[in-house]
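Q: Can I see a sequence and its folded structure?
A: Here is a first one.
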Amino acid sequence: MARLFRDKSLESKKQTRTSLTESIPIPGLPSPFGELNNSSLSDSELRETAYEIFISVNRSSISCGKSLTFSNNNNNSPSSSVSSSGSSLQRSITSTAASKFKYALGMKSSSSSDSPISSTSTSTPKKRISVGELMRVHLGVSEHSDSRIRRALLRIAAGQVGKCIESMVLPLELLQQFKSIDFSDPQEYEAWRTRNLKFLEVGLLLYPHVPLEKSSSASLRLRQIIQGASERPLETGKNNESMQILRSSVMALAYRSSNGSMPETCHWADGFPLNLRLYQMLLEACFDVNEQTVIIEEIDEVIELIKKTWVILGINQLLHNLCFTWVLFHRYVTTGQVDNGLLLAADSQLLEVAKDAKSTKDPAYSKILSSTLSSILGWAEKRLLAYHDTFYQENIDSMESIVSLGVLAAKILVEDISNEYRRRRKGEVDVARDRIDTYIRSSLRTAFAQASPQSDAPSLIRSWGHQEYI
């Protein structure tokens, strides 16, 4: 595996590279989670919000109501950071032990020389990198924005002692903390304010956790505020009338439930597909910024911190397994299909999804599962139904993994989602045998048609169809 960080600074790398966490659109491979239609939020804006959520939930001192203090620790981080006692985010990334997560996925681990603090020269040791700093760089958030986010979290913690982060609507709290004078650039302030208002619109109006009622006065007021902000900018950072109206509307929408009872947590970023889009961005940050196909060695720790966003994003273990399967598969496809390790990892993760599919019949999960598996299966079958045209000496090693991935996706779709399968005895259906039989016959027919003269091809194909094959 390539090393996690090169000798050049992370910040310069971030400024010069194309963001690797940005999903790359591939023809014929749309997101199975759905698109954020009617949303004007860009990927960079979504990534910054995902980072804000990640930082906020990993501040144990905020969740528990403890105080926070600023500390400048130049030995552990290249930038100033908020520290809390025992905070996971501030632990330096120095571990060179083999990753249990990567081992479970069948992926190789880097050698100890690839540690971010190792160096070819003893006189110029590399800087240690905290987990928070790693996520900041991988999600493309500037140091300036990061500093502002952390200041806001300090103010929130000081002003709402004892209040858990899951009982807050983060974009609303951020709007409450800063005025225009807190920004040196008026355009930066306008972009920041607009992003937070747009996210409130997307999370509470366009893709809410609980469907909106047509007669909802709170949703009408919020729409009016957001639309009016373009003509008469909302004055943030104050407890004025407009901010009070915004807060009452947002909290009324966030604290809704399907049965009418008061929920324990508020809902503002856990509606489909918004939550999966944000979660996908967080998982994509587990890839090396320099090597697009390399998963960082510290993925075990990073994944545990990412999982803390579940309470905000409405994610569970089943959705995590499914989303991570897609991230691995999507990364393999979008990076030129050259690293078979990613394909093997996706196949290993899909085995967990297969177990999950048998344990639940939740209709919302089944819908996302079906969409994801159909996308994977469709991609695989384009290559397997005419595999003579797809595989050759240089890429033949990937064929076994693609067959395994396609067959497993088909089995889950048929055995755990299809109603037709449930109506028939299991002994009557052998999905793996049927799929492989289809791939062989289809590929041989295509090969015969390509190799035989046009006039002889139909008769040869018909003749072959009645023969046994090995």
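Q: Show me another, different protein.
A: A second, unrelated one:
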Amino acid sequence: MTGPDSTAQRPGRSVARALRRAVRRAGWYVREVVGENDYQHYVDHLREHHPDRTPPSRREFERMKIDRMEANPKSRCC
């Protein structure tokens, strides 16, 4: 049956859904590569493995991260 009560989806909807999913996944990938999610990963790690510690603020975390990068330089662009 292909009337208005049909459960078959229109092809445009499935394409739009696949496109939204692809954009979300690409966004996740870019955030992981550039380090945007590092703070959340760190907080999650602290909560799971060190529940007695208070996580630093985002600003403190970024300062620690930059200090660590400067103390132990690796190959980087700048």
